[in-house]
Amino acid sequence: MQAVSLVYSAFVPHPPIVVPEIGRGQEELCGSTLRAYQELAARVAGAEPETVVLVSPHAALLEEGVTVLKNEEVQGNFANFGVLGVRLAFPNDLSLVERLSRELLRVRPRFGELDHGALVPLYFLERAGWRGKVVLLSMPMAGPERYGEELGRLLRSWPTKVALVASGDLSHRLREDGPYGFNPAGPRFDEAIVAGLKGNPAQIVQIPREIVEAAGECGYRSLRLALAAQEGARKVLSYEGPFGVGYLVAELYRPSSLARWARRCLTEYLGGGDPTALPQPQEPEFQRHRGCFVTLKKDGDLRGCIGTTQGYQANLALEIAHNAVAAGTEDPRFRPVEPEELSDIRFSVDVLGDLEKVKNLAELDPWRYGVVVSQHGRRGLLLPHLEGVDTVEQQLSIAKQKAGLSPETTVDMSRFEVVRHYE
User: Fold this and answer.
1) Residue range 354-405, pLDDT digits in tens
2) What's this model's pTM, rounded to 2 decimal places?
3) Which of 125, 196, 230, 273 is the most buried (most CB within 10 A)?
4) Parts of the chain belonging to CATH 3.30.1490.150
5) Which fold has domain 6-253?
């Protein structure tokens, strides 16, 4: 299968109190964050990145642009928090620093130490067994999506494995007895972030500016950068605010072998081979009997999507192979994919759950459920969590259109959940 360069992306908080040597028992008051941090660090370490790129809101910030540490060794300690015995040091990935300095917009190299926005996640990574190179970027104050898109492009083409970790706390104004007091915008901001990660991430960018400013956050831009760097199956591992500051631990992306298998099958077919003759992956997830959809995107735009609502092949590996070829060559909305396009196309695979009959619109949710409509022998299907489809009415309208039915037609409805897998 195609080699993967960007192997993980995450968003983490950086409260020093969660470090046991600093918390001295108080870390258990944010035990959910502590345990989620340990779990996420183990996942990053398991992905075996050679380099971790850290984006911190407490590095030297610029009004326009970002800074990057240029030290041969990046190091720091928790002396500012009363702990002298914990020092972290990692080699810098100077080759990657040089490329980022050359190709990212307005990058200012500097010398200095790791700030606590970087030290806290690195503490957990080291204790999870990871040892590698570190690149420290500051959080961009302007244009986080632009930086994220460019950073993602560069990391995906890097010759060795890289993980992206964005650091930041959410609102600092969740409680009257917190360090910054209470503002009603604080809980509203945090709720919008968590809801966006669980549903439509586009809503995160749309949080009103006055809410963001009143919330007193420090991680909004670093989160937006990481979301723009790589689309993925987001998972909130923990959220809590026991000290009046919102702590969020979230996995934003990790590559899936199902999506890489889809790419391999279409590549084999376009090269004149038979994908069903390829040695099949033997992992248990490939041996299931499920329907699936394979989606191709080029430059963020749909390039093909074909699938099945139930398994017709012997297993999911063959189901993906069949649908990957069909998505690339038989989608009537697009011309067939050419072999030279493959490097610019991103693959995803939606594995479908069982269909459930729906009696009313209240049982639908365009971000949680896909929908199937049928009437007069015609049938239309629409997958869930599609960009631009935010309401049940929009979802049903498009599904009816795909079935060749008028908007006024009364239809039978079924819903289904999917698990989306990204390259």
Assistant:
1) 999 999 999 999 988 999 999 989 999 999 988 789 899 999 999 999 999 9
2) 0.89
3) 125
4) 353-423
5) Protocatechuate 4,5-dioxygenase; Chain B (3.40.830)
**Can you name the CATH fold of 256-346?**
Glycoprotein, Type 4 Pilin (3.30.700)
Q: Are 241 and 15 in contact (CB under 8 A)?
A: no
Domain covering 353-423 in this structure, CATH number: 3.30.1490.150
220-229 and 144-156 helices, crossing angle to 10°:
40
CA-closest candidate to residue 350, choices 374, 316, 312: 316
DSSP 232-292: ---EEEEEE-TTSS-EEEEEEE---HHHHHHHHHHHHHHTT--GGGSPPP-SGGGSS---E
Question: Coil, helix or strand for 208?
Answer: coil
Q: Within the chain, which residue ranges are assigned CATH 3.30.700.20?
A: 256-346
* pLDDT tens by residue, 134-167: 999 999 999 999 999 999 999 999 999 999 999 9
**The pairing of beta strand 107-110 with beta strand 66-69:** parallel
